[in-house]
Structures are given as structure tokens and as C-alpha cells.
Amino acid sequence: MPIHLYPQNSSSNKNSEPYIRLPAPHTDIILTPPRPNDPKDASFLVTTLNDPRVYTFLESPPFPYLPEHAASFIRDARAECDRILKDVDAGRVSVDGCPFRFIRQVVKKDEDEDGEGTDVLIGDISITRYAFYELPPGSEERREAQERNKALPVGSRDIVWGIGNFLSPSHYGRGIMTAVVRTLIDEWAVPRMNARLIKASAYVGNVASVRVFEKNGFEMERTLEDWSIVPESRGGGRKSIHVLGLRAP
User: Fold this and answer.
1) What's the sign of the alpha-carbon dihedral 75, 80, 82, 83?
2) Is the pLDDT assigned to residue 27 strictly greater than 70?
């Protein structure tokens, strides 16, 4: 997968930001690192992660999602992406994650540039070391599994990776997330991270998310009833989850 750069003199003014572009029919979708100084990105996160069509199906973001949450998330995510990109620039054979996590739609191309233009943030995807959601929440067993996974060296085929994502409801039903997941697995996670074991989880009832993963070769491993602890801010109680897995060749 080629990594493109917004030109320094582009009217998009992204300061040679690296990005990757999805293949047809989604060539208007690009993936970039977070942009710490773009207020539109922070506004998008606040709006989207307070939307019940989104936060209802997510476990980790706080609710209500405040501007300070968005600022902290963008800052930390960008620092992690910069760390990975440094390893890419250094010519490392394998890297410890994916730096292209903000999903953007190019909505206007500059007349004097080759395919660059104005874009809007429409979602987020992360590929990080797996949190072992199938183990009891808060248990020593889960903590130890996370620590063992974290201790494995970069590039190890034994690392278990996890995918998390969300998309703006305005872009549901277009096959975008299916294409994003496929592109990142085939063109980044496998060749650049040496990823072989990838997992995902979804609340029972999140049919669309399950379909995205199944279309990309994930298989249902188990369904855990009344498993995930729901924060009191979201109503409390527990939710059942599906755990899906993919073993790459």
C-alpha cells in the first residue's frame, strides 16, 4: 500500500501529512493520523460520540463525551501514530500498530493538485494489542493475558491484535467500514505489523458491526451473555458481547 503525502504547497495545508487511500469504489475515502490542531475533528468526535446511534454500541469512550475528552484523545492518539511513523521512516521491518486511524472523505479536489482536497472526518479505526474481552472484566486473568500480549516483541506472530472502530451515522450503509477493515488488514496489518491473530468484539444487537467483520473473514468464536459492564452514565448493568476472530495466513 503506498503512503501518500499532502504536498507542502497544497491549498489543503496539511503540511505533508501522510495518508493512504482506499481502492475503488471508495477512492474518496482516505485514512490519516489524527490532527491535533483541527477544531473540526474535535467537534466531530464530540457530536458523534454523544449520538445514541454510536455510543450505545461502544464500550470505552466516556459518556457524555466532552470537548476535553476529544482533545485528550486526539493528542494521545497522534503521539502513538507519530511513534509508529518514526519506525516506518527508520525502515523497521515490522511496526507496532497502525498510524492511519482517522477515516476521512475527500469532498472537494483542488484543481491544481493530484487528487488532494478538502476532507471531512467521518470515523475512526484502531488496530492495537488486544484487550481480551472474553476474559472476566476486571479479573487477574484478563490483566495477565494483556501483560503477556504486551510483552511480546514487535513483529511476533503470536501477538493478538484487536480492532475497534466507529463511523458517522451519515455514512452508514455504504460499505465504507467493510472496505476500511479489509484495506488495513490486507495492506497494513499483515505486511507491516506481521499480524496473524486479529480479534474484534461487538455488543449483541450490533448487527452491522458483526457483518463488517464477517465480510472480512472473521468467524464468530463465542457469545458471552451479560458479560460487559455498562458504565452508570450509560444506564449501568451488563451487556452480552460477540467475540470474533481472524487468523491470517
Assistant:
1) positive
2) yes
